[in-house]
Amino acid sequence: MRYMLLVYTREEEMARGSKEEMAKVRDGHWAVMDEAQSKGIFQGAEPLAPTPTATTVRRQHGKTTVTDGPFAETKEQLAGYYILDCKDREEAIAWAAKIPTSCGGFEGSIEIRELRQKPARSGEVTATEAQYSA
Question: How far is CA 74 from the centre of its chain?
């Protein structure tokens, strides 16, 4: 099963982190990515630019609204993600525990979300649907 591991941290804490702390976090991420790659489960990972660079697009009642910044003010911000092909949720949890989230004295969090199969186009049957209809 593929899982997305969403990395949350506090941007203001990261900004206050020393060069040494930031290097430790960066090296920790590379260690997790390298290990996951060596196990054949790594499918991708990227850091995100800070929230001031974000744009939110909403569609309501047929109208599009574009605003600067993230959807809502929160204490933690989405800082990046990993996509791993794990055998189950327990393995995804074990990998999440390896991902560094600490900088400047703040411990961040990892949200684990199973990735669903893309829905079929109209008239097509997905492998999962075929399995259940057989």
Answer: 16
According to DSSP, the residues that pair with 60 across neighbouring strands are: 63
Tokens for 11?
């941007």
Average confidence (pLDDT) per 10 residues, the chain, 134 residues: 94 85 91 98 95 90 88 78 97 95 77 90 71 56
Report whether 14 contacts 101 (CB < 8 A): no
Token look-up 């974000």 returns 54
The strand pair at 63-68 and 55-60 is best described as antiparallel
Instruction: Supply 12's token pair.
Output: 């203001």
Full-model pTM = 0.80
CA angle, residues 51, 75, 42, in degrees to nearest 5? 65
Question: In angstroms, what CA-CA distances link 21 with 37, 53, 103, 133?
Answer: 24, 23, 6, 53
Beta-bridge partner residues of 112: 5
Coil, helix or strand for 92? helix
DSSP string, 9-30: E-HHHHHH--HHHHHHHHHHHH
Residue 79 token pair: 């800082």
